[in-house]
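Illustration: SDR family NAD(P)-dependent oxidoreductase.
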Amino acid sequence: MKNNSVITLVTGGNRGMGLAIAKALAASGQKVIIGSRNLDKGKSAVEKLAADGLKVDVIQLDVTDSDSVTAAAQELMEKYGYLTTLINNAGSVFDFRIEPSQISQELIRKDFEVNYFGLIDVTQKMLPLLKKAPQAKIINISSMMGSKTEALNPQSEVYKAVAVGYQSAKAAANMFTVQLAKEMTRNNLPITVNAIDPGMVATEFGGATPEQAREMGAKSIDVGITRTVALATDFENKDNATFTNISGPVAW
Ligand SMILES: NC(=O)c1ccc[n+]([C@@H]2O[C@H](COP(=O)([O-])OP(=O)(O)OC[C@H]3O[C@@H](n4cnc5c(N)ncnc54)[C@H](OP(=O)(O)O)[C@@H]3O)[C@@H](O)[C@H]2O)c1
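Result:
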């Protein structure tokens, strides 16, 4: 498959890593559409990319709003007819540093709405478009925070982190990744499904400023998107049901 016939949708593409992924893939020659829950924010992101000479499209897409996801899938089908790559990047954390014994159901549900149910809703509704491409891939932006092995590893950078709602939602999204990958394989569909850990990256994630994140050891956005961009531009499309970061496999 040639790069210029690739059509990629990046959810949460109006800022942070989503925007940087969109920029890198558009620069590589792919047709890129960013999903943005606030269309105006999405439009200004697209304008910034246009100033750099990159033509990227935008679509309104709130992953927690079923009607928004349905409308986006319909619009994409009408405008483009297929999708080659879905990058489930939209994500949010609502529960940093709250003890598991104290966290409210409300916060856990918020974590799951975006990072798990939203990801599943977008994936299910975009699958008809992905099935229309000769080969396709789904990349789920997960996190090492969702790894139970790393949560139990005293040497791990996430050992001391406590965000049980977010971590559980990412762990659940990892299992969805594995099960969907197996379903695609069982049905002989040329669609791969993989999860990525970008590492700790200096964005506005969790309400911190990129500067604050950097002080805590976060890496640059360029480093954070490296593995995702590598997977999104791999036309052999061999990796399936993997969980990786820039250094290789991550323990589930
Ligand atoms: N930064 C890190 O250290 C880190 C580490 C591991 C994994 N991750 C994961 O990487 C992904 C990108 O994070 P980031 O660091 O780039 O964070 P970010 O700068 O906070 O960007 C998050 C993006 O997700 C969007 N979003 C949030 N809720 C949404 C919803 N309901 N529907 C659609 N879009 C929604 C945001 O849109 P608005 O602008 O409208 O809020 C924004 O575009 C997330 O999945 C995150 O969990 C991040």
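Reading the tokens back as a structure: The radius of gyration is 17 Å.
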